[in-house]
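Researcher: Let's try something more involved. This one mixes different molecule types, so please make sure each is placed in the same coordinate frame as the others.
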Amino acid sequence: MSDPLADYRKKRDFAATPEPEPAAPVVRGNDAYVIHRHEARQLHYDLRLEHDGVLKSWAVPRGFSFDPSEKRLAVRTEDHPLEYEHFHGRIPKGQYGAGTMTIWDHGRYELVKIPTWDEAMQRGELKVQLFGRRLRGEWHLVRTQQAKNSWLLFKSKDTYAGPTRDSALGIELATAPACHVPLTTTAMRWQDEGNVASRDTDWLFEMEFEGLRTLAHKRGSAITMPSLASPPPTAIADGLAALRCHEALLDGVLVALEPNGRPTQAALAQALSGAPSKSLAFYAFDLLQWEDYDLRQLPLLDRKAALRTLVPEHARILFVDHVAGDGTALLQAIAEANLPAAIGKRATSHYTSGASPDWQRVRATPRRGSSRRSPTDALPTSEAPRWKPSNLSKVYWPAEGFTKGDLLTYYHAVADALLPHLRDRPLHLNRFPDGIDGKSFYQREVKEGSPDWVRTAPIPHDGAIVLHHVVDDLDTLLHVVNLGSIDLHPWLSRVGSLDAPDWAVLDLDPKTAPFGDVVRIARAAGKLLRGIGLRPLLKTSGKHGMHIFVPLMPGYTYDHSRMFTEAVARVLVRELPDIATVERLPDQRDGKVYLDFLQNRKSQTIVPPYAVRPVRSASVSAPLLWDELEDGDLSPQRFTIHTMQKRVAVHGDLFRKALDDRQDLLPAIAALQDVLRGR
Ligand code: MN
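Model: All components are placed in one shared frame. Result:
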């Protein structure tokens, strides 16, 4: 009998690759699968199914889709040893499969419909049921006649199938604990007279529904609602059975409408008594459990994103959407409809039992007269702006004709996404009172005569105490922009913890180097950082550079973040010596991209995501998905004050994890030392 791993061994030099050298194959339970995200020359995913003591492997260049009509090429590759199930790391340059291997999904699988591997291989058709964090349900692999080892992979039509997405929930479940039995818990309650403002970038706002609050549990087609004495009405149960999962625990409200369209308790009582009701519906606003994961410790925004992907198009089951950051318009609509209130919820809050200050009822106050703006207003503003706009028609970008008013309009539109990245940070201004071609001056200190409602922070600087601006809200943001600030320069640390940076930042600064080199280095940096266990974030600088952020757990100093980033930069220079340098003197850089780690210093600043740059075309610092480095146009002209709004509407704030996903550097430093030693 030949060695199934002969091919695997032949391709690798185990003195040079960190990949596992196989021990003698052991046949185990036969049911594990793993999917590696493999950033080799071409990004692809490797699907590996345990069988007969090895991992049967396919490379899937375009990844997975839950839409059954999207058939993806899967190329059969050599069997891998079982030790590979838990392998992740960086395969050095020059070795087979050089690049970064991360575990993208992991779980168990079952063969379905075709009962044995032998029969499946004979037929060239394999059906598996996957039980992972990202992939669930039945998937179908079919051998094609096109080329040797060529297969097609696609989703079978089942309860998980639905619109295009590459994972069942679209959120990261790594921190969600497993729960193997249905959760039982009491519902979270809002405080009735809280003190949350109707506009707060850390909060989101939902409509309050008049009805019966209840959790709803689904397991297959069995639906229970603990707040009801009897089983839920068939129409509701059928709707919940159609959720795109096997098991889930939802929170929501049962609502029934009067003929005039108003929800009332009387209409609900009638609908629940068994009388036919066309208007009975379940409004779902939270997701506590999905399959065998307890989601209660995940941020509310992630739970809602997951819930949104589960809810099918169904007249009886409705997803309660929200507005983020500014509930003013929602409250006004509620007041105009003579409804009582909205519910404000802290966007990062966990789900807890009982009353919580993280959920607050916000009463809508009926207004007399109209508070709508007159159509002649040049700018959208808060109802009573405290800042006074000036010179709105002054041209700031002469070649394009963009004005200061355009700039203010842009910042107003992206404020929800931008403000969390500015909050609590000392800010330096760079003022261009006559636009990008005029004189400019850099300003740390708040000038005399600054309005007293603008938050300031006293910061020691050169032996003196210097008052800095701190931008926490929309009015202050528009005030500093109105002063002629085109981009914004916040610190990497916050008032109250000025010595503890929130991010380690690597700035790829090309000066005259080609943009393609920046992209290549960013790709290598992403691979390296993921290879040592981190989850970095990427954005364009808004000019021709890129910024890479690693959010840090509290407790690290600027010395830590700078030394770490310097080590990363030096590994990258060693890897790409022809295009990357850490040379500080610009005329000694030989046209290479400068890897600047020196910004990791107290009182240094970095432009935040969504900041406009004082350059041609009014380009903007744009958060990117790492996969966007693989293809597509990333030139600064693509992300401008005229295109960014739509991108934010589609993707939300792609940089939010810079605030939420704080990471531990210590294990990464240990892993980086291995890389430096030449592994
Ligand atoms: Mn591969």
